Amino acid sequence: MLMWILxxxxxxxxxxxxxxxxxxxxxxxLLLSVTLSLQDGSYHVVLENITQTKSGxxxxxxxxxxxxxxxxxxxxVNETLIDSIEQNALINAYTSRIESxxxxxxxxxTAMAPxxxxxxEKEKAFLDYSLEVVEGEYFSDAFTPDGYxxxxxxxxLAKQLKLKVGGEIILIGQGADGSTANDIYIVSxxxxxxxxxxxSKVILPLMHAQIFLSLPDQAHSVLMLMDDYRMxxxxxxxxxxxxxxxxxxxxxxxxTIEKEFFDLMTADKQGASITILVVVLMVGIGxxxxxxxxxxxxxxxxxxxxxxxxxxxxxxxxxLVEVFLLVCFACLIALMIVFPLNLWFSHxxxxxxxxIEMSGINMSHMKGVNEAYIYYVPGLTLVLTSMIIAIFPAIxxxxxxxxxxxxxx
Length: 409
What we know:
alpha+beta, two-stranded antiparallel ribbon, 14 strands, 22% strand
């Protein structure tokens, strides 16, 4: 107890220097905490969007489909597969999709258009996350009174073809069996904006996409959602034993499907460690400077203590306790400042002046995360760094020779 009292007294002896050092520690803590919050928060928003609209948390695909997306590399969506998915308690939603391309024609305007075939009802758990109907109404499997199937088109494609809701769009392509695919659809809605991943797509009901491409009871992918995208990789091995996969198919997580983005995100997070290193270095230099000045000023005092029988290890411990108290006080005050700030970032965030495009997803709003690690990681980093840096001046003080030190008194 006496050691802690002495350490507090020593910190108050030069209060201005202690405050300045504490402020540098606080600044480092604030910067690290906010950086972790915003970086992980921005990726969290993007990953939520990507997994909800593009990849799902898990996918069932044909073995070679991800390497080369040929139209005939499909999954047979049979009752056995559907039952095994529906019986899994961890899977909240699932849907089947077909992806291809065709020549879109309207009046005298033509454009190449990606085709996305979706289940109108099951897909609501996925695309409703970001698919915005700008004009018209969300479609269904039902035919129009005139006997046409419905389609939704992206804003960019609508502009290229000069199409409006209720207009006719003609699609010409190739079926999986080599036959010519062609049909007329009625535009039920224009979706999204010119900057999102649906901008140039034609979205068809799954049943009509299967008919158009000659893929009865087939899909290119079966997407599944769980409570959290972070559960996907850990659950993968268990799901492979529980879900009855058709032959020549595989179960993959979003990390495999969006491998390019995942690798980019991992590299970016590793690059952020440079920022952390710079902040820690700056704080460490400040701590080293303060402790060295403090120990040099008290050299005679240490010499007197050692001459009176104080063990060198007690002097060593005193210096470390002083640094520990200073960094703990700084981190505690910084925590009280940064907690409401990160809370605001996680709940409200702020709009970006210019939307950022990531893996086909536009991020227009920046939000943070408010989880325990964004507080204890900066704290532990600063405490460990400060304690390690304090070892050198502490050893130097503990080795003070009384005869040499007392000459300066």
